Fold hydroxyacid-oxoacid transhydrogenase.
Amino acid sequence: MVSAIRVAPTAATRAINLLRTVQYTHPPTCPCHSNPSHHHHHQNESSSLIHHARRTLTTPIDPSRQKEYAFEMASSNIRFGPGCTKEVGMDMKNLGAKKVMVVTDANVAKLDAMKQTIEGLEKEGIAYIVYDKTRVEPKESSVKDAISFSKAHDPDAFLAVGGGSVIDTTKLMNLYTCNPDASFLDFVNAPLGKGLPITSSLRPLIAIPTTAGTGSETTGTAIFDMESKRAKTGIAHRSLRPTLGICDPLNTRTMPSAVHASSGLDVLCHALESWTAIPYYERMPRPTNPISRPAYQGANPISDIFSLQALRSTAKYLPRAVKDPDDHEAQEQMLLAATLAGVGFGNAGVHLCHAMSYPISGQNPARYTQPGYVVPQGQPLIPHGVSVAVTAPSVFRFTGPSNPDRHLAAAEALGVDISQVKKEDAGHVLADRLARFISDLGGQPKGLKDLGFDKTHVEELVQGTLPQKRVLVLAPNLSGDEDVQREKDQLRGLFEDALEF
Amino acid sequence: MVSAIRVAPTAATRAINLLRTVQYTHPPTCPCHSNPSHHHHHQNESSSLIHHARRTLTTPIDPSRQKEYAFEMASSNIRFGPGCTKEVGMDMKNLGAKKVMVVTDANVAKLDAMKQTIEGLEKEGIAYIVYDKTRVEPKESSVKDAISFSKAHDPDAFLAVGGGSVIDTTKLMNLYTCNPDASFLDFVNAPLGKGLPITSSLRPLIAIPTTAGTGSETTGTAIFDMESKRAKTGIAHRSLRPTLGICDPLNTRTMPSAVHASSGLDVLCHALESWTAIPYYERMPRPTNPISRPAYQGANPISDIFSLQALRSTAKYLPRAVKDPDDHEAQEQMLLAATLAGVGFGNAGVHLCHAMSYPISGQNPARYTQPGYVVPQGQPLIPHGVSVAVTAPSVFRFTGPSNPDRHLAAAEALGVDISQVKKEDAGHVLADRLARFISDLGGQPKGLKDLGFDKTHVEELVQGTLPQKRVLVLAPNLSGDEDVQREKDQLRGLFEDALEF
């Protein structure tokens, strides 16, 4: 009834395979594919998002110049429901965890989310250690601290309770606890680090977000500040993804209105940037091993579904969530939107708003603190979402010509009647809508000037943006390594345009 | 810099938690929630899909009657791209596999998909054993055979190359190889089996679909025929999900037109049934442990996104894929649609079309074989997709009143101008559109009569449907266990209505 055969490739098979390889491993040469800034008619319809490689036999070329031909979609499991935090003890038991590292920060440690978590663990008799020293906007030093603590206790599972900073820090604790001999820079994104792929499997990590913003519970990304290089960077790999994200809308009720606003602006930009990123089949180089295919791979037909839905929800619910602290429906929808946007950008990537945000929040020359934020030790703070959204009108005016239809679809999702809009105005129309959307939230800077920047700061902002290669390669319309001078000029123009909107 | 604290719940915390538990663990009592057939104004908008539990304190009630309050979304990683099959050798190496069980069937064993797979493994020097005896529409006996083979060889990873039958069989080989002492019925869905949750972690499984239909590469479901009970059943649990689905559009080019049609009809019904299933917050009972939350949990805001997109793509591309064997764009889009629908129904479930399909294909009184199918040993065959779609007009006419807006949205996705349609006609309008859509594909039965059924077969079809509890509980408008006689009458009516469309 059963048989075991071992197929040895015959000469004929090899010939077929060779033909197949040649047919599908060469970059297309039709002009609309050769430049990331000219792919509009390939993005208009989902039908065009699956790339058709040109089927002619051509001379083999430099593999490092080959464009991508596949995309990969990965996400943490996501559980969503009011009150489901308390299930986490059973989850840890189901995973076989005997000693759990609970990671949080000093604020969240006092909140109900943390109480539910601890009660869940105690009810199942699971031993745990709490690390509550993660910091908002993690720095290399705070991350290394957390890693030392984790290595010393060597837990068999991790549980992050907090916002993106907590969840990102926990991912790094897991990574380096499972790779105790690795040097810190081994996995950090190139060019600041070595960008090695993660080959070991990590321990279970359950993430319980208490903000509706980063979507970190679904992604394989962890961001931190390398003070030594004056730059934000991070580690990004599918293996870093949490095992499970527990999205409990009761946990975001504790967010002040200002945090609703800035974390919602982060969601807005996650959705917009992943939706407008270059398509995956324009990214270079094609990986020679699938483990090297980046999580940030460009827009693809699956990320598109998530990004556009997140954008629509944000348009509808963010203003309500900011204005009315008792609008629990809007808050729940924003938590869901943050998670959907997380799956979207976690598989497509972000681009200019995020690349430009890192020097904005890092340099902060006027020691600006966002109204409504309570900052420990009087440290100044431009919240991540604010630093991202402040350049959005400028960015999407710039990227508009790369794909007018996508920019119009985004404007429509934000409530613009686009029936009479010309394609050449797509970027402007979206930019104007974004400027009004951000202003209408209230309390938001209307450009970099309101954050204390002026023309004299632009050059340093450009210098702080250039190392963000991982996301800049996904920016449509931006010149790449072939013409770095032009890229600098473009970034300079973007920052200048973002001084006021 | 670091601290370890151990939080013991105080009396105050306990009081808060008790309040929280009481507030969120009782089923809502507003009349529009109490009956699955009357939730329309809760499904019209995504805003209403997050269920708001009623916040009053009431007397505790029987937990088995509590409705669900959370949903969980899980999917295999999905890689998509023409030619990406050949990456599987590197994937297996990255997973650390040393001895791979390659599972396929006698037809697929001859195709290029299998050649690419074997070449990929050999290039990386990975040892493998091939099992090529899986059968179309697996039976208990064929499944047990495959499991014996797998147990004897004890591989450290599995690789399925084929359609849904192959992938489903491979999931079962993995499950019972990792649980060698389990009795076969332990994990089989109740009431035919014991329906135990899967607590052990399984070995890596990579699935490479060669049809665009089942979406099995993304789901935790495996379906087979229990000859002894004259019923189709299966095993469904998130843990069964493949590690990775490799969706290579080159692999579906070998499908004959008749297979494009029937597998595409399966996609159509996956999308329609998951989109119209009862919402997750109407399902009972609420699980007492998250590991018992079924994969088939009812419609939810994330499954909805997948199901509706899959429906739109199927409407657009299935007719083209069936009519023109060289329309590779349509074929690629159908492979993507099958995968998207897989994520949708894999997290929401299917209902009546699938429940009723099992006795249709199982009983086949006229020994019907679908034109265009080449069946081994002259066995009759009603392909799964055909048996599912043949009742679709009847089913959605019946379910229409449960949620007119969703049925109208489905009709619109299939190209109907719904601007003038009244809500009470929603089911009829969708049914009429489906009847025409199926007929226009060509070569499809226009009702059960064309498959050789008549009125005298209806009673046995009803009897064969009743054991499909797992999906029947998700059917809107259907009477449940409270009134089994009414449920039988409703099913009888559905089969009679499906004799001709």
Q: What stands out?
A: The beta strands of chain B are 4-5, 71-73, 77-80, 99-103, 127-131, 157-162, 205-209, 221-226, 231-236, 244-247. Chain B touches chain A through 84 residues (CB under 8 Å).
